Amino acid sequence: MSYTEVPGVRVPIRMWTDPTTVEDVAMQQLRNVSSLPWIKGLAVMPDVHYGKGATVGSVIAMHGAVCPAAVGVDIGCGMSAVKTSLTANDLPGDLSRLRSKVEQAIPVGRGMHDDPVAPDRFHGMATSGWDSFWDRFDGLAEAVKFRADRATKQMGTLGGGNHFVEVCLDESGAVWLMLHSGSRNIGKELAEFHIGQAQKLPHNQGLVDRDLAVFISDTPQMAAYRNDLFWAQEYAKKNRAIMMALLQDVIRKEFKKARPTFDEVISCHHNYVSEERYDGMDLLVTRKGAIRAGSGDHGIIPGSMGTGSYIVRGLGNSAAFNSASHGAGRRMSRNAAKRRFTTRDLEDQTRGVECRKDSGVVDEIPAAYKPIDQVIDQQRDLVEVVAKLKQVVCVKG
Fold first, then answer.
1. Predicted model pTM
2. Half-sphere exposure of 81 (CA within 13 A, CB side)
3. Given pLDDT bands bounded at 50, 70 and 90, which one contains residue 129?
4. What's the CA angle centered on 321, arms 14 and 20, to 5 degrees?
5. What separation in angstroms does the CA of 156 have from each of 114, 148, 152, 222, 277?
6. Which residue among 114, 258, 267, 296 is buried most deeply as judged by most CB within 10 Å?
7. How far apart are CA 127 and CA 119, in angstroms?
8. What is the CB neighbour count within 10 angstroms for residue 387?
9. In this model, does residue 306 exceed pLDDT 90?
10. What integer pLDDT is reported at residue 37 of this predicted model?
11. φ, ψ (nearest 5 deg) of residue 270
């Protein structure tokens, strides 16, 4: 589908979904964002749903301003995926050992490594600029300085919630590795600190929602936020790269006889800020639950833990600020899912997937999410499908 344009306050709201299907509170958030004095454009993805300040699944283009709550507390959260030389025939009938080995290699939930992962074990993206990256830690906000040890030990860890590590099969039977994570606790604490700072600024006192407080260009507060924001986005990218390297190590050891090889890793943020130029104007584009989908850009759009995911290639649609959805998107809150579904429902909906099926992950049940195939169909003018994946192993925190 192409987009539907809904009237906003200062800019129209371009929606890649049926506006009548979006909950009232999310529509109000979109109108609130469209009222910001700095707004230059607002694109809404088919996975849109209620969030903090701004909806998840929105692309907010502003001139000379950025809203830290719209970026969210998991700065740089995103996806990585890689195709392997293995096929379905290489996999054992019982995948529980493989799941266990992944869980041993990659700490989940609030866990961390006992010692920081040694970067010399890896090469390429995982370790590029490693020393200079950590040297910049001293330049972050004072409020997080005491977290240095934790930040180094959480590098290469998954976290909880909707973060996951998966082993998947594409429609040809090829094995893929995929994971979803962000900037862990250090990103969360940086975000919370700066959101608090923004809310104190005089120019934000009259806003319709205090969670839409912004930093303005050419101010010390904006300079401090941009410094910490871009560092946290890099942390998230390196975190995924380290995890992917750890995951590939597991695969090499478990499938020694097959001598697995790996294609180039695809990686994309979906909670982040990017400096981009549209219609001759330099803009700060915040993708909150959206990926960049410029012409030829590879991206990853995951479904839920029982439905599958898509590898896509961007079509470069400037009306959406070269963006696409970041996943299926929730259709009910975590608490609503816990009230409505049982562990038996979870077992039914994840049949055939080696994964947790206990009460701790009921809020991640597939029925709590929108149908991923429908979400993909609604953005055919934003991306083209490269591969459709179905998970056989799913590790969650």
1. 0.95
2. 29
3. confident
4. 20
5. 12, 15, 9, 29, 33
6. 267
7. 6
8. 17
9. no
10. 95
11. -140, 10
